[in-house]
Amino acid sequence: MQPTEPEQLTGKVVHWRDDKGFGFVLPDNLAPDPENRQLFFHIRDFTDSKIRPAEGCRLQFTLAKDKQDRPIATQLKVIAAPAKATLLANPDFIDLDYTQDVALYFRCAFLVLVVIALLFGTLPYVLPILYIEASLFTYWLYRADKAAAIARQGQRLPEQSLQLFSLIGGWPGALLAQKKLSHKKRKFLFQREFLLVIIGNGILLLWLLSQHGQLFLGRLALWS
């Protein structure tokens, strides 16, 4: 017996927080109690990632439940919008899903380059290139996240991801981005973690360039 497709429901957006990326939709055919009919929904659950809903828009969705077993709307699609509603497609929208995919590919490529440099015993010589590449990419990530913040998108890049790229050598690019883009530099907890990342990266770099580090790298090299 084949599983049945989830029932497609329709409803109207009665509340939307664009700065937070969530809202509530009033279904057309659910419980009669108006106070219990409004369903929570999040921007990440739209089938089109470039859509920005607005109050008064009509949505098509399926019914699901969150971790607390509360009904929510998912698999959302805008089917109609009133003339006075804000634009559905945000021209300043930053596709952070694409950005995170590129970040994943960069991490994999970066790891491959480090492993190759270790095996050939050339890591100390290619470190400047790795730092430059990581810094340029980290700056790009900060700029994408800043643009998403300006566009008031609900989705943002995880701070752990930004810190990770700083840790692998991109902290100069992160520092430049914080000053030039005025991004993340006023968040105390983030800045405290960022300082620890710089210190950790510096300690690792000094050890790699020390006599003990050189001996360790020499044992890893297979074709030096």
Secondary-structure map with pairings?
Elements: E1 8-17, E2 22-27, E3 39-42, E4 58-65, E5 71-80, H1 96-119, H2 123-150, H3 159-180, H4 188-209, H5 211-220
Helix pairs in contact: 1-2, 2-3, 3-4, 4-5
Describe the structure.
Strand 1 (8-17) and strand 2 (22-27) form a beta hairpin. The chain has 224 residues and is an alpha+beta fold. Helices cover 47% and strands 17% of the residues. Helix 1 (96-119) runs antiparallel to helix 2, helix 2 crosses helix 3 and helix 3 (159-180) crosses helix 4. The chain has a five-stranded antiparallel sheet, with no helix packed on it. 22% of the residues are buried. The protein contains five helices and five strands.
How would you sum up the global shape?
elongated
Helix and strand composition category: alpha+beta
The helix fraction, in percent, is 40-55%
Q: What gyration radius follows from the Cα positions, in whole Å? A: 24 Å
* Total DSSP helices: 5
Total beta-strand segments: 5
Largest beta-sheet details:
5 strands, antiparallel
Residue-averaged pLDDT: 86
- Beta-strand proportion: 15-25%
The termini sit apart by 62 Å
Low-confidence stretches: 85-89
Order of helices and strands: EEEEEHHHHH
The strand order across the widest sheet is 3-2-1-4-5
